[in-house]
Design a protein that fits this description.
The structure holds 2 protein chains of 2 kinds. Chain A is mainly beta. Chain A has one domain: Lipocalin (Beta Barrel), CATH 2.40.128. Chain A is built from 1 helix and 10 strands, in the order H-E-E-E-E-E-E-E-E-E-E. The longest helix of chain A is centred in the first third of the chain and has 14 residues. By secondary structure, chain B is an alpha+beta fold. Chain B contains 9 helices and 7 strands, in the order ααααααββββββαααβ. The two termini of chain B are about 65 Å apart. The chains are: A mainly beta, B alpha+beta.
């Protein structure tokens, strides 16, 4: 609950923030397909399913803040030895565009995997960049992003040794409407414990769509 | 010593009056004649006045002085009972200055009656000198005073020197002095352009077959606030490209394939070998490939850049709007033009 506190606070501050002049406010709905894979030394456990959520985005003078949330149920793939799990995730991502085609990003994500036997909480801090180049005029855009995750904290596990995410995508923007399709692979390798080395990987292909409002 | 001094004194007394008379000048002599006339010393005034109007008078005589001398000659002769001669002198005065008149406070009714006879027998038109004048055509006008010595048909016109179109300032009967006005507009109703103008006055007597005319030249200049220059045409450096280059379609295809290649690389190179990846990456590869190919064909058919076209149109509209405002301000300034009118010739030139 304490991890959710900053997100709630940000939500409460949102009306005050947007009342400032010249702020662009975007609201996006996210529908994603997730593929979660875990190898804890007992073979690969795999679960897939649909994730649904949304993003609120505030932007002013090249600086943006994304507040996102997503939730869903991942069903264990038969034969992989895993169990079903519920996923909930809240994230905040600050963005700064030093160049028209480059966005530097940094943020934190709070994620929860819940199963019938336990609940695992993740805290992921990420920093990286996203490149956006026009694919066809200024309507379609090609995207590519990569982040390092210098801190991945999971309850019951040591901090991850190597973590990153990367992906590509396409974006469509027409007037106030924004749509994008992105593929992201997030990989976390944990330190070896004895002869076992735990690895987790979450692949998503997400379709987001929404509308952008300009507030004066 | 005393004899020599006496000789010098005598010479001085003989020479000085002659020198003084020669240096007296026309104005002084005319003043002297007027004073003699006013003291009714007519016999002494007449030779002086005749001397002034004589062609042999060596000093310069202005037209006004000559007219004055003729008037006093005529008036003096009326007092001596020589009316016919008086009329001749009064006519001479009127021929030289149609504005010439006798002041009732200074001259007798008999003199005025004789002057009136001279007026009827003489026909001439006159035009007062035009001083340097500033005329705001919206509110003011140039005043011109003309005169005929007796009843006449008068026509006053103004035209650009060498031009054929003219403005009629007056065309009708007249007797005596009349003030005419010019509003600063040309024959076309527009503000008179700068240049030299010819103001002509033609009169035809209604008492006889006599006619007279006068002409004066004036220069007209415009006094107008400095005008603003309009903005120049927008150059290529100030406009955005409105069409994509031919290579853009190929580049778009490469970008789409780049996104597909990136998704392929993420799914194969960055994924954990033990965990593998699902179909998500391959979906992205397929979508990006199709997107790149679609962008390629779309861009080949649609080279224009609507956003740049709109921005350029807006810039051109801004420029046109600014130029319209400049033209409007310039029009206002031109509408506030002041005419500077200066005489360019002697008061009146008889053609």
């Amino acid at each position: 609950m304490s991890r959710v506190g900053p997100m709630v606070l940000a939500g409460l501050l949102l009306p005050a923030i947007v009342s400032a002049q010249g702020i662009e406010l975007s609201g996006l709905i996210t529908v994603a397909h997730g593929d979660h894979r875990v190898d804890a030394g007992l073979g690969v456990e795999r679960a897939t399913g649909l994730l649904v959520g949304g993003v609120v985005r505030l932007e002013r003078r090249g600086i943006a803040l994304d507040l996102s949330g997503v939730t869903g149920h991942l069903t264990a793939v038969q034969g992989s030895g895993g169990i079903d799990r519920d996923v909930s995730q809240l994230g905040a991502l600050a963005q700064f565009a030093p160049l028209p085609w480059l966005v530097l990003e940094s943020g934190v994500t709070f994620r929860s995997f819940g199963t019938v036997v336990a609940r695992q909480r993740w805290t992921l801090v990420r920093a990286g960049a996203e490149a956006r180049v026009p694919l066809s005029g200024e309507t379609f855009w090609a995207l590519g992003h990569a982040h390092l995750l210098p801190m991945v904290s999971v309850n019951g596990l040591p901090n991850a040794a190597t973590s990153f995410d990367a992906g590509t995508g396409l974006a469509y923007r027409r007037g106030r409407f924004v749509f994008d399709l992105t593929y992201t692979l997030e990989r976390c390798d944990f330190p070896s414990q004895g002869s076992t080395r735990r690895s987790e990987q979450l692949g998503t292909i997400a379709l987001r769509g929404g509308v952008e409002l300009r507030l004066h | 010593m005393s004899r020599r001094a006496a000789a010098l004194g005598l010479a001085f007394l003989l020479i000085v009056p002659t020198t003084t008379a020669a240096q007296a000048g026309t104005a002084e002599l005319l003043q002297q004649a007027r004073q003699l006339y006013e003291r009714l010393e007519i016999e002494r005034a007449l030779p002086i006045l005749r001397q002034i109007v004589s062609p042999e008078w060596p000093l310069e005589v202005t037209n006004a002085q000559r007219v004055e001398a003729y008037k006093y000659l005529g008036a003096a002769l009326v007092l001596r009972g020589k009316q016919d001669s008086a009329v001749l002198y009064f006519r001479a005065a009127l021929e030289r200055d149609a504005f010439a008149d006798l002041d009732p406070a200074q001259f007798t009714p008999a003199q005025e009656g004789t002057f009136a006879i001279a007026r009827r027998r003489t026909f001439s038109v006159g035009l007062r000198p035009i001083p340097e004048t500033r005329v705001d055509p919206r509110t003011g006008r140039l005043s011109v005073t003309v005169v005929t010595t007796h009843a006449a048909l008068l026509r006053a016109t103004l035209r650009v020197l060498g031009g054929t179109e003219y403005v009629v300032l007056y065309n009708g009967p007249n007797d005596g002095a009349r003030e005419l006005g010019w509003n600063g507009l040309g024959p076309d109703g527009q503000l008179a352009p700068p240049g030299r103008y010819d103001l002509s006055v033609v009169g035809r007597s209604q008492l006889g077959a006599q006619a007279d005319s006068l002409r004066i030249y004036v220069d007209v200049r415009h006094e107008v606030e400095p005008l603003e220059d309009t903005l120049p045409m927008l150059g290529t450096a100030e406009l955005l490209p409105e069409r994509h280059t031919e290579s853009t379609a190929g580049n778009d295809l490469l970008k789409g394939l780049g996104v597909a290649g990136g998704a392929l690389a993420v799914g194969s190179l960055l994924a954990n070998d033990r965990l593998g990846t699902g179909h998500d990456g391959r979906i992205m590869v397929g979508v990006a490939t199709v997107g790149g190919i679609a962008a390629f064909f779309y861009r080949r058919e649609h080279r224009e850049i609507p956003r740049n076209v709109a921005l350029n149109t807006a810039r051109r509209a801004d420029r046109d709007g600014a130029n319209a405002a400049i033209r409007s301000r310039n029009t206002d300034r031109i509408a506030r033009t002041i005419l500077l009118i200066t005489p360019a010739s002697a008061p009146a030139v008889r053609p």
